[in-house]
Design goal:
There is one protein chain. The longest helix is centred in the last third of the chain and has 62 residues. The chain is about 90% helix and about 0% strand. By secondary structure, it is mainly α. Helix 1 runs antiparallel to helix 2. The mean pLDDT is about 90. It is rod-shaped, with a radius of gyration of 27 Å. The protein has one domain. The protein contains two helices and no strands. This is Vacuolar sorting-associated 2 homolog 2. InterPro entries: Snf7_fam. It holds the Pfam family Snf7.
């Protein structure tokens, strides 16, 4: 447990900014990995076609299994990317709720002060 009593408490705006930055970095990393896997998929498809033309059935089956695994990996990464984007949206919604509640708190204080003046 990290207890740093001298560290300044981060504001919700700063927390949102750092969270968005970290999520964007993670998303870019996943997108880069997906792009490299898709390039590898194209190469693998070409290699499968080449081995199929030569009639090497065993090698073609092995390459086809690799292609299936590669496509599953791409699908999993796309799911992870979607989850990260969902988390980013959720974080932004939470920040919006905190800013609304802060605004309402200020309005409540102002209204109570006005009521004291008129009563």
């Amino acid at each position: 447990m990290n207890l740093n009593i001298f560290k300044k408490k981060t504001s919700p705006k700063d927390a949102l900014r750092t969270s968005k930055r970290e999520m964007a970095v993670a998303t870019r990393g996943i997108e880069r990995e997906i792009a490299s896997l898709q390039m590898e998929e194209k190469k693998l498809v070409a290699e499968i076609k080449k081995t199929a033309k030569t009639g090497n059935e065993a090698a073609t089956k092995i390459l086809a299994r690799q292609l299936v695994r590669l496509r599953q990996q791409i699908t999993n990464l796309q799911g992870s990317r979607a989850q990260i984007r969902g988390m980013t949206t959720h974080t932004q919604a939470l920040y919006a709720n905190t800013s609304i509640s802060t605004g309402m708190k200020g309005a409540t204080i102002a209204m109570s002060a006005m009521n004291k003046v008129y009563i």
